[in-house]
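Run log // design_07
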């Protein structure tokens, strides 16, 4: 399948969101059970996810190629991926096995630098995702950055908004820390509320359309007869990687009384609304969603 047909199929069938439906939120452990399939066959299994701890978005999937070709780990950007097929536990990617095999090498035991990222993105001719106001540069959905897609979020429009030279300069200034972290590494980190420590990170919930991390699953049961609760990533003040702790803008009592989250059940929008209502915060979904506006009280943040 040529690049133009790949892009057209991606945009019309897989990459664009179903606008009338709430996006599905998936646990990172579910994403790590996916098999990656190129346009000409399977590639390997997802073993980890690298996320940006400033914007809280999955930037790369770490894929173990196994026996498909010379066994090594490679990076796959959501820019080149379609919507996961959860029935088949498969993630389609819009590149060939040969392209993936010849992609720039990466040492997953070392931090991914901006230099590594620019080499990788240049190899696939993807625009840089940093520097714009959107989650993905000038776009909301990574698939809209695919080369050849023509539209308001096309690479040509994006490059007019985010100058490639300035983005590269920013990459050089950031040096060795592009704020990319392993989703596996953050599991177990302590949660620091505004008035003391409470629980630990038990999981992450990812929007499988934008690849944004929407919530931390916080387990409070090691402090009292507690339960799992949700904390939206916009309520995170900072992450201390040296102390293995996540500081949040919520009190212990507020967390203690938060709605119970069951990791064995799909997260419905009604539950999300209940969580935001409890914390007195607005949701991340569009404000013209009348149901959300009526359900979430307009009061000061807790």
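design_07 sequence
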């Amino acid at each position: 399948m040529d690049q133009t047909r790949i892009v057209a199929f991606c945009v019309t069938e897989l990459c664009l969101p179903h606008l009338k439906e709430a996006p599905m939120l998936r646990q990172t452990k579910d994403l790590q059970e996916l098999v990656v399939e190129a346009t000409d066959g399977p590639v390997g299994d997802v073993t980890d996810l690298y996320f940006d701890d400033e914007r809280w978005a999955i930037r790369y999937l770490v894929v173990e190629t196994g026996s498909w070709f010379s066994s090594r780990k490679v990076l796959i950007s959501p820019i080149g991926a379609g919507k996961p097929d959860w029935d088949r536990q498969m993630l389609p990617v819009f590149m060939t096995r040969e392209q993936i095999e010849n992609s720039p090498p990466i040492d997953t035991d070392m931090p991914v630098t901006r230099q590594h990222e620019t080499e990788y993105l240049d190899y696939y001719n993807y625009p840089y995702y940093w520097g714009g106001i959107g989650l993905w540069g000038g776009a909301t959905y990574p698939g809209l950055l695919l080369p050849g897609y023509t539209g308001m979020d096309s690479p040509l429009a994006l490059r007019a908004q985010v100058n490639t030279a300035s983005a590269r300069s920013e990459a050089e200034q950031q040096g060795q820390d592009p704020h990319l972290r392993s989703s596996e590494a953050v599991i177990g980190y302590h949660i620091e509320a505004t008035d003391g420590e409470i629980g630990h990170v038990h999981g992450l919930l990812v929007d499988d359309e934008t690849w944004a991390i929407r919530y931390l699953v916080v387990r409070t049961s090691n402090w009292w007869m507690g339960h799992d609760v949700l904390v939206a990533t916009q309520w995170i003040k900072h992450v201390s990687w040296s102390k293995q702790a996540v500081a949040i803008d919520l009190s212990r009592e507020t967390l203690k009384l938060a709605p119970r989250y069951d990791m064995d059940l799909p997260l419905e929008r009604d539950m999300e609304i209940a969580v935001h209502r409890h914390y007195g915060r607005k949701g991340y979904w569009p404000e013209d969603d009348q149901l959300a506006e009526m359900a979430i009280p307009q009061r000061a943040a807790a």
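DSSP finds ten helices and 13 strands in the chain.
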